[in-house]
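ok so i was messing around last nite and threw this chain in just to see what happens. nothing serious, just curious
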Amino acid sequence: MRSTGVVAAIPTFNNAERITTLLPQVLEQDYSAVFVLDDASRDGTPDIVRSQFGTDVKVLSGKENIGAAGNRNRILEQRLGDAALHFIDGDQELISERTPELILSSTSHPSVGAVGGLITDGNGNMWPGNFVPPISLAYYAGGAIQASVMRLLIKNGHRGLARAMRIGLYPLLRNYPDLTQDPRPRKVFTAIEGNMAINASLFERVGGYDPKLRYHEAQDLAFKLQQADYVNMFDPAIETQHSGKFSMRGKELEIAKATIYLMRKYGRLRFLFSV
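result:
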């Protein structure tokens, strides 16, 4: 691998089968280093990665499961300076080519904080949560419409009706992806953590992800970057694909706890009135 100043950081938990598909795709591209961040997997992931990829991949393995936010923070131990970090969840596939070059271009502007890439499903459709507004009552309403109603309409061939809904509910949906159009670069609030690039020194300076969170960690990082006068961007050229299902079923209580924690940390009025 040639040095490009872009480091791949791949968080994983019990995804040995999928990560062995992702890693060759990453190693084919010009990352300066590749790290697997293992959150105390029980399926032998660290040993499997070491045996198959040797010194090409460095494994940072924890003895205790600390959740996605804390696991991603394991990369902070490496003190990577001004390298760009590219977080790619271990259960995805890397679709874009020359990805490190795209990341260097996307993160080069001094006012840019984090850059979220495009995540698609197994059919190549954009995931509704590729970027979202600040967490609020409107956030939950808009997210439900995007994730259920609009996706169902599009899936059943009613794209025109979905487009009409998007236009009619634009104030509520304007800071969510437009599922009826091809994705385009734009300024966003959150940069989706499953496919996200950020300067390593900036990530360290703002304290990484909040390790107290197991959900909504991207919201917390977005708030911290906003407070530091950075803007986040969405760049669909940086693409990964998640072939499994996105489901929050059974996790509602933990998500509610994370919401309350963020309300206390950043203010209840923001939760009530932000769009």
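not much to say yet. The CA atoms of residues 160 and 180 lie 8 Å apart.
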